[in-house]
Structure of omega-amidase:
Amino acid sequence: MMSKFKIAMVQMAVGTSKPGNLARAAALIKEASSAGAKIITLPECFNSPYGTKYFPEYAEPIPGPSSEAMAAAAKENKVFLVAGSIPEKCGDKIYNSSAIFNPEGEMVAMHRKVHLFDIDIPGKIRMQESEILSPGKQMTMFRTPYCQVGVAICYDIRFAELAQIMTQKGCHLLLYPGAFNMTTGPAHWELLQRGRALDNQVYVATASPARDTQASYTAWGHSSVVNPWGEVISTTDEKESIVYADIDLERMEEIRNQVPLRNQRRHDLYRVSEPAEEDRREEL
Ligand SMILES: NC(=O)CCC(=O)C(=O)O
């Protein structure tokens, strides 16, 4: 395992033209790879404006045109690519899905958002993804020569147990394509990333779309990378940009040895774990 490597979180300006979005993503992936990034992450909903009214129109299967374009970009630039997310059509269902590619352009994993964004804050924001989307049923992790990586999407970051289990399973980097908004963004976006990083002593990174004040959903932006000490080591404002950070797994190990939480858990009092296969409500 290589203990130091660069990641890039692409805060891309997403518009209404799907071909335009795919071309923009490909250009930014090239730029990030030229800057030395080995793992590149795009934002939630990078091929479509974010919003339930857009999902049916922009939805497509995986594999499909968007995932094939991203497979080609991963291969051309020889990078691991977490291709943000797209509305994925599968039979009569639509998921919010992140396809993940290796440097050969092969899809190595796919995450379907497991916690749908259903909130109602009167006078501020109401979103009910579940009116259109179906939830995924699996946690998503993939291996790289650097470390094992966990992937979840946006609202998934609010569920601490998911990050804990991915950490228990050996992930040292958790990547969250996401699109927080102008109400919960300033209140919770950074706090959640720092919380997940500090509790689990892992690196946590997010990629948001750039803010478009003309869009029906205004993204908060502020894509970031947080280290296992809970420090924001790289971030940005609301505009289109690429957030880079050097991941240092020796530093992570140093922190884990200095503050040895992993040996101090009271499993006699509590335990966070996956349910047994037979207890899962629906088959995978
Ligand atoms: N797209 C999302 O899941 C948004 C999540 C969000 O804004 C939150 O507050 O949580």
The radius of gyration is 18 Å. Residues 4-257 form a domain with the Nitrilase/N-carbamoyl-D-aminoacid amidohydrolase fold (CATH 3.60.110.10). The chain has a mean pLDDT of 97. Residues 44, 117, 154-155, 158, 179-181, 184, 188 surround LYUYDEPV (CB under 6 Å).
